[in-house]
């Protein structure tokens, strides 16, 4: 258990900690000279039954409130110190307000310097304290009279702290590791050491961690937990970590940083939060008000964006967006405190709701529904609510990361809730079963309607289909949905088009006969340099216009592509040439190749090779800069058949989900805008197909 002191300057916090532990926490030369605490101090007290209590001694002077907040950010138990002769003072009230805003629900009050007052003053001081505790989180806390001079009450207070340590619930050590840094220093022969409170999870010697928000990687060389050398530290411990790695130095890690599991590294500089304004605040909170944000050990400038109508009155609560001067490492549910920019008063505080707050459309009704779901503290209920939000899905990996859930904990929650899980890009989406059914039925209904209106076309363009559905999913997730439906044989994917499996566009008998004569001319050995329309017409003794019409129809059916004017290639050949470009880029310096290199791979003429590459450029398959080109991996499925898609990526050890919970990988990036290949931009239908 971590115990944090609180109270007015010169009320005896440091002396009391020394009486309890035997450790003088004032370590700085200036603290010794001035007789006041300036920075955080630390002490430890082994309990008779084994666990060690950690103490964080904070300064009481009003100039060092920011340091007090840094120390209070990671405590489990508050030790409020009030001198009997002074009673409740200004910093007593401010420290108490901060403890309340940080949600510290357990504590005890030490009435110090009782040797200086009589019994009547003791009673009046107790009455003052009881009134000050009022409706705060420490209301009803035990008040123990103590004197470090006579020793009165010290043993009783120590015994109560031991009892409290057994009763206070330990933090979630099964979740991912995060430590809030409050000190960073170097030791000769040891290297860089950072100290702080482990907020969640556990860490072991040899673990690889990240410093956030900087993103520097490090390895844990040794650990001291609760002032003892150990191989492991866990949630609720005060830990000192000896770190090693490129870029690791005393100045590379500072107070306010976090040392955490690499999977938690996702700094944020825009946060939606619940805010409670203290009744003592003299003015309402206005739009874009500058403040100082205190979170864990961090102290950073921020602006308040109001999400409700009108300013927030003193004593009121509302939801706001906090726009930070620089990114911080945080978690949903973390507590924070706001102070004014002059550091003279505490304004209020609350809880983080959403770490990925939008810069635009932050007050729409749809956004408010999302915030209602984010406000739910219990992960399972929050996930269920988010999966039913207007967006139609929740990013499951981001949900787990931002709430610091343990390994596979989010997957287990999703399965218990009956959510459909779809893997796409480098994450997973979770959809409520009713949303999945709505999307699936919407796709099939819209494709069927398109077939009814366009029986001679291969199918509807993917992007056109996506834009016509509600909810409108991101392009990459929509592609994942289509691939899953294709896997289940509920739709079929033909390059850029989507069709029902039973739908097949057919040529007329006359066109089928002509196609049987034409196809061998553009296949096999000559497939990379097929003859043009005029040449084909001469070879098969047909009218040039009829051959051109046939190719245009075949293009609409997805069987050929017009690479250059009157120069048609089989779709399968175009797919082969895409793979050739991919292979060439994979072996080329910086992934870039020239037209000459591509020509040589195809054993083709320069003119035709350039026409092919310009065709790829137009459709985003390749990206050109000067004489060099590189492959755009997000467009590679444009000319592939479903059988040509790359194999699924490993699923991080998860078992394949049951029916109703598909799990697979799909291509990433933006959904292609299919240009001339999307059927809604094609010329009028020819009457020759049925």
Verbal overview:
The model is unreliable at 642-690 (pLDDT under 50). A hairpin with a 5-residue loop joins strand 2 (41-46) and strand 3. The longest helix has 21 residues, at 433-453. The protein has 690 residues and is of the alpha+beta class. The strands form eight sheets. Strands 2-3-1-4-5-6 form a six-stranded mixed β-sheet, with helices on both faces. A six-stranded antiparallel β-barrel has the order 7-8-14-11-10-15.
Concise synopsis of the structure shown:
The protein is an alpha+beta fold and 690 residues long. It starts with a strand and ends in a 59-residue tail after the last strand.
Gyration radius (Cα, Å) is 34 Å
Report the end-to-end length measured between terminal Cα atoms. 77 Å
Number of strands: 32
The total of helices stands at 19
Shape: elongated
Question: Low-confidence runs (pLDDT<50, min 5 residues)?
Answer: 642-690
* Class based on secondary structure composition and strand pairing: alpha+beta
Main sheet strand line-up: 2-3-1-4-5-6
**Average pLDDT rating:** 88
Kindly state the percentage of residues in helix. Answer: 25-40%
Give the SSE layout:
Elements lengths: L1 E5 L6 H9 L7 H6 L6 E6 L5 E6 L7 H8 L4 E7 L6 H12 L5 E6 L6 H15 L9 E3 L8 H14 L10 E10 L3 E10 L1 E3 L3 E5 L3 E10 L2 E3 L1 E3 L3 E7 L13 E3 L7 E10 L11 E7 L2 E9 L10 E12 L6 E5 L6 E9 L10 H10 L4 H8 L7 E2 H7 L6 H8 L3 E5 L2 E5 L1 H21 L6 E2 H6 L7 H13 L4 E3 L2 E3 L9 H14 L10 H8 L3 H13 L3 E5 L2 E4 H17 L4 E2 L1 H8 L3 H13 L3 E4 L2 E4 L59
Parallel strand pairs: 1-3, 1-4, 4-5, 5-6
Antiparallel strand pairs: 2-3, 7-8, 7-15, 8-14, 9-13, 10-11, 10-15, 11-12, 11-14, 16-19, 16-21, 17-18, 17-20, 18-19, 20-21, 22-24, 23-24, 25-27, 26-27, 28-29, 30-32, 31-32
Helix pairs in contact: 7-8, 9-10, 15-16, 17-18, 18-19
